[in-house]
Amino acid sequence: MKFNGKRLGALILSTALILTALTGCGASSSGSSGGTIELTNVSYDPTRELYAAYNEIFEPHYEELTGQKIEVTQSHGGSGKQALEVSNGLEADVVTLALEGDVKVVADAGLIDDGFTAEFPLDSSPYTSTIVFLVRAGNPKGIYDWDDLIRDDVGIITPNPKTSGGAMWNYLAAWYFFELQGQNDDEILESIRTLYGNVVVLDSGARGATTSIVENGQGDVLLAWENEAFLSLKEYPGDYEIVVPSVSILCQPTVAVVDEVAKKHGTVDAATEYLNFLYSDEAQVIEAENFYRPSTREIYDQYVSSGEGNTITEIPADGKWINDNVVLTDINHFGGWAQARAIHFADGVNFDSIYEQ
């Protein structure tokens, strides 16, 4: 995993923003109300807590930097559904979605300029995550790895890859596990078919899936973003455990300025700074405290657990929650998002063939 160093681009942008403010050429009135810039961030399901905390530090940062007040509005839902909403007219100044492929949907609608993955460091992915299992306390079904999910006594909760970006990561992580077991593509597809045959609730988004298991009492295991699993431990102490499987996938949520909307609103500078500031040390700490893996090495290392086990029963008292005892693949293993979508998630291909039968 590569980490960015000194972010020259962010410094240049911040300097430009200061000069803009000093020369009286701030955001146009179409992006402001009574002198306050209004910025809309359309994000995916599990980031509610993260961006609530981030906005609290970004808004005073931006006012100090430019002399202008700013107010950020959030929208959350399944990442794929959110991408379609923006493409169909939901006016977002920025998107912070679960994967590059969902941002590409918005770009394909003509709203985001080409090259968005190069606009910010690390492929425009300021933090990462991975997929883990959330099970009930004591792990009564003995669920420790992906092959346990194809037993006939296990009920699974996972979102739908058709509407949720996180669900695509779940599917691909499982695929990678069975691939490492030496299965060929037909055998992997059969294993994945069995796994989805055990799904008892296929929610539209990750937060809805979490609700299905922790509030509605459905299923034996939730396939979850790391942060969703840790929030469940925090909110329901003693009721659940996290199991980190032997292999998973490095989830890279992607951020982008929605260029056409930001130009219309006169918020291009504000939107760009909003995403640049996600790479600041102050923001990286907030990301880590909300159980996302920070991209800055020095901050990442502060949160790595020294424990060797792959079962987590409570939030670590020392705050060191990152479990590195897992082999992570990434989307490049699947040929990138365009190829992964074409093979696995487009209409009529792998996922449809296993779930619609």
Structure, explained:
With 357 residues, this protein is an alpha/beta fold. The protein folds into 2 domains: 8-128 and 252-298, D-Maltodextrin-Binding Protein, domain 2 (3-Layer(aba) Sandwich); 131-249 and 326-355, Periplasmic binding protein-like II (D-Maltodextrin-Binding Protein, domain 2, 3-Layer(aba) Sandwich), CATH 3.40.190.10. 42% of the residues lie in helices and 17% in strands. The chain contains 15 helices and 15 strands. The chain has helices at 8-22, 48-66, 79-87, 100-108, 121-124, 165-180, 185-197, 206-214, 226-235, 259-265, 268-276, 281-289, 297-302, 337-345, 350-355; strands at 32-33, 36-43, 69-75, 94-97, 127-128, 131-136, 156-159, 199-203, 221-225, 240-243, 247-249, 254-257, 293-294, 311-312, 327-329. It has a 6-stranded mixed β-sheet with strand order 8-7-9-6-10-14. Strands 1, 2, 3, 4 and 12 form a 5-stranded mixed β-sheet that branches. It has a two-stranded antiparallel sheet with strand order 5-13. It is globular, with a radius of gyration of 20 Å. The relative contact order is 0.18.
